[in-house]
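I hope you will forgive my troubling you with a question about protein structure. The full record is reproduced below for your convenience:

——
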Amino acid sequence: MPYEQIIYAVADRISTITLNRPDKLNAWTPVMAEEVRDALDRASEDEDVRVIVLTGAGRGFCAGADMMELKDAAGQGASGLSGTESPEEAVSLLTATKTEEQRDPENRLSALSDFRKRYSYLPAIPKPVIAAINGPAAGLGLIIALYCDLRFASEKARFSTAFSRRGLIAEHGISWLLPRIVGLPNALDLLFSARMVDADEALRLGLVNRLFPEASFMAGVVAYAAQLAALVSPRSLRVMKKQVWEAQFQTLAEAARTADRELVQSIESEDFKEGVAHFLEKRPPSFTGN
């Protein structure tokens, strides 16, 4: 599909998806939501892509939902939702975006309902997704970043939950996600106050994995992504990502049983044979993902 609000590019086995409304600090719209979802499908299915980077054009990562969309929702209010069958259906009408159940009834990515909500599909994408946070990430923009596997930030990045200052609530599962990343007391602080957090504090809190100077930000992100693309097994990445995210809903015994099953399958894989061979032969790996 042609894209109006994002840019899609592939180079050196890295897919870069760029939110492209720089004059609006890449504020999120229903069009952007559908385009990002399509681009992630495209990257997932492309055998030449091994890592996905999500970033923003210009000065911002994503300033949250477009305020004009919020204005329309505020004007519509509950009176415009008569006849809806569920809260999720009501949100779909207000935001004009689909849940993953609506978009993908065949469970292509994950059978777990936890990864089949409006934005929680990101953990089910079978390749690493890195949020390259080049500037402000607020509200829904922060949620999108949190659903990515890793978060790398420019020293100019800023973060805010924003919801309490708009009369809103902890949206789209952030009440589950944020405490797992920064801890319960810090999550409550960030949600209650909606204060702005700078890049240094974000690193201290564990909100981001790494910081890079502004001048070398994307180069640093791409260098890390290039290591994943060139040096590690795509099959290992795919299985480990699934293990770790699904373990959030498992007991230790269940996670161990899953690991035992996956270990047997990995030993039978082409990538395991290549992993041993390139080490013994002291040469770069040539993984196929099989």
User: Anything to note?
Assistant: Residues 70 and 192 are 20 Å apart (CA to CA). Strands lie at 6-11, 14-19, 51-56, 129-133, 136-138, 150-154, 158-160, 197-198, 210-212.
